[in-house]
Design goal:
Blueprint lengths: L1 H43 L3 H13 L1 H6 L16 E5 L5 E6 L4 H18 L5 H13 L7 E6 L8 E5 L8 H10 L5 H19 L9 H16 L8 H20 L3 H35 L3 H15 L20 E6 L3 H14 L6 E7 L4 H10 L6 E6 L20 H4 L1 H5 L3 H4 L5 E5 L3 E3 L4 H4 L8 E4 L21 H4 L13 E5 H7 L1 H9 L5 H8 L4 E4 L16 H6 L2 E3 L13 H8 L7 H5 L5
Parallel strand pairs: 5-6, 5-8, 6-7, 10-12
Antiparallel strand pairs: 1-4, 2-3, 8-11, 9-13, 10-11
Helix pairs in contact: 7-8, 7-9, 8-9, 11-13, 20-21
Length: 617
C-alpha cells in the first residue's frame, strides 16, 4: 500500500513539472511577442498622422504600382524635362522617389504625375509643346544621374509651385516663369481658371464637326454649369465644393475634346475665318455706336424740350410790358464786362450765366448778351424773368433781329447735314463787331462751359495789338494737341504761301476779342473769303485770326470734359473755365458722370418747371 502511494506521488510530481514546463513555454510563446511588438509600436507612435497617411496612400496606390510593371503606351509623349524639382509649400502628404538607376516604368509614372500637375495648374498650356519637350527630354534621360522628384498628392494653388533647375539653379521654362509671376497678381485664381475653361470650351464647341456634337454634349453641359457658378461668385471663397468638382470634370472633358481635333491646319483656318468675321462685327458695331452717340448728342432730350415749351407758353401768357428785363441802361456801356453766349439751350445758358455771376468779385459790372434763334427766344427770356439776377444784367436777342445777316448766309454746303458747320449761331460769332457796334471788348462763351473763378484779370490783360486771346492747343504731350496741317490742306497754293504748317492753334469756348482791332484789320471780309473753302468752324477761326492771337495761360481754359475721361482732376479744380467740348454734354444722358457735378451744382432742380419736366441732376 505504501508502495502504491509513493508511486502515485512520484507520478503527480512528474506531471506537475511537465505542467510548469508547458506553462513556461506557453508564456514565452505568447507574451514575449506581445511585449516585443508593443515596444515597436511605441517607436512608431511619433509618426502619428504621417504614418497612417502613408498606409492609406500605399493601400490606394496598389493598382498603380502593379501597372508600373507593364510597359505603358504614350509614356514618351508625356515625358517632361529631367532634373526638375516641384517645391510645394504647406504640403499635407509627400511621396519621395529616389533612384540611382534608369527605370523606364518609374520614369513613365513620374512623367504622368508631372503632366497631370501641370495640366491642373497651368491652364491653357500648349499640349503640343508639352509633347515636344517630353520627346526631347526622353532622348537625354539615359544620361540622368540621381533624381530627387517630389510629387504632391494634393493640388496646391498656382502661387505655391516653383519650377527650378537642379543643376544650374535657373528657372526652368519661360512659360512657367510667366505663369508664376502672373499668379501673384491674380486675386481669385479659381474664378480666372473657370473663365479660361469656359473660353476653351466655347472654342472647342464652335470648332466641333457635326459628328462630334454628341461627344461634346458633356462639355457643353459643364460649360453652362460653370458659367452660372461664375456669374454668382465674386471671389474664390464663394465657390462651393461641387463647383470645384465640376472644374476637375471640365478639365477631363477638355482633354477629351482636344483629341477630337487632330487636324491643326483645319482648326487654324477656321479660327482665322472666325477672327476675320469677329473683326468685321467689331468694326460694324463701332460705326453703329459712333452714329448713335452722334445722334444722341444732336437730339434734344425730352426734358429740355418740355422745359422750353412750358417756358414759351408762360412767356406768351404775359403782357408785353411784363416781358422786359431789368437794367437795360447797362446793355451798351463799354466800361462794363460784356459776355456773349450764342445758344439754343435754356439750361446751358443758365449755367453759364449763374456760374459767371457766382464767381465774380464785382457782379454788378457783368453784362450778358444771349443770342438765340426765334424758337428759343421766348423760353430763354422767360427763364431769366422767373430767375432774375440780383446785380448782373442779361440782354436777350434773336438772330432774326440781324436782317443784314441774311445776305451773308451762304451755309448751304455739301456737308449741310452736320449742324456743327451749318448752325447760324456758330457762324454768327464772326460778326461780333457788327452785332455790338458800340463795344470795344467782349468775351465769347460757348454754352457748354462753366466758370469757376473770377475773370476780371483777363479784361486788363495786354493783348499786344492782337484781336483774340485764347488758350493754345499746340503743346506736344498735352491734350488736346492740334496743328494747322491736321485740319487744313496747306499744300493748297492759296494757303501754303501764307500759313506755316507748324503754326500754333487755339481753342474755341472762352475767347476774349478786341473789337477795335478786329474792325481795323477788317477780318470779317477775310472770313468771307475763307468761308468758300468748306473747311469747318475751327479752321475758319484759325485762318481768320492767324498771327493775330495772344495765347493765354492754360489754367484759364481746360477742355475735354465732353469726350476725354482722363482729364486731370487737379487741372479741373484749378481751372478758371472748364469746357465740355465733344458730344457728351452735361445735360445729356450720355454725359460723363465724373464731370457732371461741376455743371449741375449751378442749377436748382427744385424749381417747379424743372420738376414738372422731370429734370434731375
Amino acid at each position: 500500500m505504501m508502495m502504491m502511494k509513493q508511486k502515485l506521488l512520484l507520478l503527480l510530481r512528474h506531471r506537475r513539472k511537465n505542467r510548469v514546463l508547458f506553462l513556461s513555454l506557453l508564456y514565452l510563446s505568447v507574451l514575449s511577442p506581445l511585449l516585443f511588438f508593443s515596444h515597436r509600436l511605441n517607436l512608431l507612435a511619433p509618426l502619428g498622422k504621417d504614418f497612417l497617411e502613408d498606409l492609406y496612400r500605399v493601400a490606394y496606390k496598389t493598382d498603380s504600382l502593379k501597372l508600373n510593371a507593364v510597359e505603358q503606351e504614350g509614356a514618351e509623349e508625356l515625358e517632361e524635362p529631367n532634373h526638375v524639382v516641384y517645391k510645394v509649400k504647406d504640403s499635407v502628404s509627400t511621396i519621395n522617389y529616389n533612384s540611382n538607376q534608369n527605370n523606364d516604368s518609374e520614369e513613365s509614372r513620374i512623367a504622368g504625375h508631372r503632366y497631370e500637375l501641370l495640366e491642373r495648374n497651368v491652364t491653357g498650356f500648349d499640349h503640343d509643346e508639352i509633347r515636344k519637350q517630353g520627346t526631347k527630354q526622353k532622348e537625354s534621360s539615359s544620361m540622368a544621374g540621381d533624381k530627387d522628384i517630389h510629387v504632391h498628392s494634393l493640388r496646391m494653388p498656382d502661387d505655391n509651385i516653383q519650377v527650378t533647375n537642379k543643376d544650374s539653379g535657373r528657372k526652368e521654362g519661360k512659360h512657367n516663369q510667366i505663369v508664376n509671376s502672373e499668379s501673384h497678381e491674380v486675386r481669385n485664381p479659381k474664378i480666372e481658371e473657370i473663365k479660361d475653361q469656359i473660353l476653351r470650351a466655347k472654342t472647342y464647341l464652335n470648332l466641333a464637326p457635326p459628328s462630334g456634337n454628341l461627344r461634346l454634349k458633356e462639355l457643353e453641359l459643364l460649360m453652362r454649369e460653370l458659367e452660372q457658378a461664375v456669374g454668382e461668385a465674386t471671389q474664390d471663397s464663394d465657390l462651393s465644393a461641387s463647383v470645384l468638382q465640376s472644374m476637375r470634370h471640365m478639365e477631363a472633358s477638355l482633354s477629351k475634346a482636344y483629341r477630337i481635333f487632330p487636324n491643326c491646319c483645319a482648326m487654324a483656318d477656321k479660327l482665322q475665318a472666325m477672327k476675320h468675321t469677329t473683326e468685321q462685327q467689331v468694326r460694324s458695331q463701332r460705326i453703329q455706336a459712333t452714329f448713335l452717340a452722334q445722334l444722341a448728342g444732336r437730339t434734344t432730350p425730352k426734358g429740355l424740350h418740355c422745359l422750353s415749351m412750358r417756358l414759351t407758353a408762360e412767356y406768351f401768357a404775359m403782357r408785353p410790358e411784363e416781358r422786359k428785363l431789368p437794367n437795360e441802361n447797362k446793355i451798351y456801356n463799354p466800361e462794363l464786362y460784356h459776355y456773349a453766349v450764342f445758344t439754343d439751350n435754356v439750361l446751358a445758358c443758365a449755367v453759364v450765366v449763374n456760374s459767371t455771376v457766382s464767381t465774380a468779385k464785382e457782379p454788378e459790372k457783368l453784362v450778358f448778351h444771349v443770342v438765340t434763334n426765334s424758337h428759343n427766344f421766348p423760353g430763354i427770356s422767360m427763364w431769366f424773368l422767373l430767375n432774375p439776377l440780383d446785380k448782373a444784367t442779361v440782354h436777350i436777342q434773336s438772330i432774326d433781329n440781324y436782317r443784314w445777316f441774311s445776305k451773308y448766309n451762304t451755309l448751304e454746303k455739301p456737308n449741310s447735314s452736320d449742324p456743327i458747320y451749318t448752325s447760324e449761331l456758330n457762324h454768327l460769332r464772326f460778326y461780333l463787331p457788327d452785332i455790338f457796334p458800340t463795344l470795344n471788348k467782349i468775351m465769347l462763351f460757348d454754352h457748354d462751359v462753366v466758370v469757376q473763378q473770377d475773370l476780371s484779370e483777363l479784361w486788363t490783360a495786354d493783348m499786344n495789338g492782337n484781336v483774340i486771346g485764347a488758350v493754345g492747343t499746340c503743346k506736344e504731350g498735352e491734350a488736346p494737341f492740334h496743328r494747322m496741317d491736321m485740319f487744313i490742306n496747306i499744300s493748297d497754293p492759296l494757303l501754303g504761301e501764307r500759313f506755316d504748317v507748324n503754326a500754333c492753334t487755339w481753342a474755341f469756348g472762352m475767347n476774349l476779342f478786341d473789337l477795335q482791332q478786329w474792325r481795323m484789320h477788317n477780318l470779317t471780309s477775310l472770313y468771307h473769303k475763307y468761308l468758300q473753302m468748306n473747311i469747318g468752324i475751327q479752321p475758319l477761326g484759325w485762318l481768320t485770326f492767324y498771327n493775330k492771337t495772344t495765347l493765354l495761360d492754360r489754367r484759364w481754359h481746360v477742355q475735354g470734359l465732353g469726350h476725354n475721361s482722363g482729364v486731370d482732376r487737379n487741372e479741373i479744380e484749378h481751372a478758371a473755365v472748364i469746357h465740355y467740348d465733344g458730344i457728351r454734354k452735361p445735360w445729356l444722358d450720355i454725359a460723363m458722370g465724373r464731370y457732371k457735378n461741376y455743371w449741375t451744382k449751378f442749377l436748382k432742380f427744385d424749381q417747379p418747371f424743372l420738376e414738372r419736366c422731370n429734370l434731375q441732376p
